[in-house]
Amino acid sequence: MLSVILTILKIIGIIILVLLGLVLSILLLVLFVPIRYRVKAEHGDALMINGRVSWLMHIIRARIHKTDNDSRIWIRIFGFLVYDSSKEKVKKEKKIGKKSNSKKARAKKAEQKEADSEKFDNRPGNGINDNSEVKSDTDLKIDSEVDTEVKSDIKSDKIISDSQETDIPKSKISLKTKVVNFFHNIKRKIIEFFKKLLNIKNRVHLIISFVREEVNKEAFRISFASLFKLIKHILPTKIRSNLIFGTGDPCSTGQILGILSIIYSFYGDKIKITPDFENKVLKGSHYAKGRIRLWTILIIVIKLLLDKRFKEFKMNYQQLKEAL
Q1: CA gap 11, 18 in Å, rounded
Q2: 71-77 sheet: strands from edge to edge
Q3: Which of 15, 87, 289, 323 could disulfide-link to 238, CB 3.0 to 4.6 Å?
């Protein structure tokens, strides 16, 4: 009996170890296997973008295709199509068609009901019931006389109320009180304006002192360094680009060229930029390939969050928010 129990426990332990090994291997795959992407784009006379994303040794794949007239996104898992944007568009169009057809059917039914009701009303004998009582000419005259008497009473009441209101003397405000109130309002507005200025001055002083603190300066430096590492990791590792651009104005074209020259610090001669100082043009062909590792992103974020200076910065920022 004891040997049977030990055997069962051994089997359960082996199953648990196998499950833990599977979970650990999946976690390692998710963290260390990179997400690979590749993009190819051409623009000028026509637009064309082709993109591919794959993960876990092409188990999960996605493709993007976009032109001036059409766009499509589809995702496959283990080779099976999971999502297709073109099919979703077809489904939406079918739903819209069904809704429009149902609306037309409802409108036709409503028109048919109205037509049937008009036919029924126009049938003889349906205007006034035979058993309904019809007022005679004398009754109508009596009703009109009663209405005129009621209206005359209401008019007389209004005239009396208007005469009573005219008899009530209105309060006269002297010129002196008007002048005093005018200057009092001006004084109040000036005081409120200076209070707002003092409040803004205090807020600016708090923000400047917050920025000038050494701990906050170090936290800003660490945050920007982490952000730079994150962007550098996400950006493509291989790139080829050929761009021809011009705004039609030589001055603005030169300014944009100066801004685009920053890209040379990342990729150097892999990017070719040709400015056109005379014509307004934007043409080019681009190719980019890269990978993203979740483990690298996780390490960058954890290092930033565990840094003491960043923690103090968060506390100081919370105090600044409460003071403002």
Answers
A1: 11
A2: 80-84, 71-77, 60-67, 48-55, 35-43, 280-292, 238-247, 271-275
A3: 289
What tokens were used for 111? Answer: 């028109």
Which amino acid is it at 315?
A: M
How do the pLDDT tens digits run along the chain, 324 residues long?
Answer: 778 888 888 899 999 999 999 999 888 888 888 999 999 999 888 889 999 999 988 889 999 999 888 889 999 998 899 998 887 766 666 666 666 666 666 777 777 776 666 655 555 554 444 444 444 444 444 445 445 544 454 444 444 444 444 444 444 457 778 888 888 888 889 999 888 888 888 888 888 888 888 888 999 999 999 999 999 899 888 889 899 999 888 898 888 888 888 777 777 778 888 888 888 898 999 999 999 999 999 999 999 999 888 988 989 888 888 887
Give the helix/strand (H/E) hosting 61: strand 60-67
Ranges of H-type helices in the chain: 2-32, 85-122, 137-167, 175-212, 214-234, 250-260, 264-267, 294-306, 308-323
Residue 192 has a CB neighbour count (10 Å cut-off) of 10
Q: What is the pTM of this model?
A: 0.59
Query: Residue 267 and residue 222: Cα distance in Å, rounded?
Result: 24
> In this structure, what token pair is assigned to residue 43?
């623009």
Q: Which residue has the tokens 């349906």?
A: 126
